[in-house]
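Shift notes (night). Ran phosphoenolpyruvate--glycerone phosphotransferase while the centrifuge was going.
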Amino acid sequence: MSLSAREYLNYFKQVTEVIENEKDYLCELDRKLGDGDHGVTMSIGWQSVNEKLDTELLDETDCGKISSVVGMTFLNAVGSSVGPLYATGFIKGAKVLKNKTELTDSDIAEFWVAFVNGVKERGKAQVGDKTIVDTLDPFAKKLEAKFAESQDILAAFSEAVQAGERGMESTKDLISKIGRSSRLGERSLGVQDPGATSAYLIIETFQKVLEVESVK
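Came back to this:
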């Protein structure tokens, strides 16, 4: 399987749509833990990305450039802590994709592992802190292991997304240790982390892109 630059651009279009559809849900989760604006923040970031997709990136064929511009655009649009996390992830991933107009299975796996490592390096959170990392760390570890084993990106990615989903759901049973929600202490129990949730939506959307491409 391979993804063209056009299909990669289309993936970001789909993320924009998914985040817009889930904006209210993400805000509802965040009202129980923080300012209640996570959905709005993510929407602002991705709508800004969407504008770039229709202008500067419209005919771009370098997947590395696409990833880098997406990251910087998101950062410039979003002032909250999530901006630098996603920006670092996409810019780290861009190095894997530099000058590539078609993405192989290996490129895809390496991109997402680099993306997650970038997020982790920037945010310094650990699994169990009730953050985006609770979704992304198990996702990346499963993706790396399963792809090395099978060389089947769709199968490996599907298992990885399931691992990410379990990680996301585990945040309901965690006490928040980082950020504004950490002030709540045990009152943060029982609520799924909004950042972990939006991260899950982003990787799940990529899985759906792979599924569509696999049957073409």
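The mean pLDDT is 91. The longest helix spans residues 5-31.
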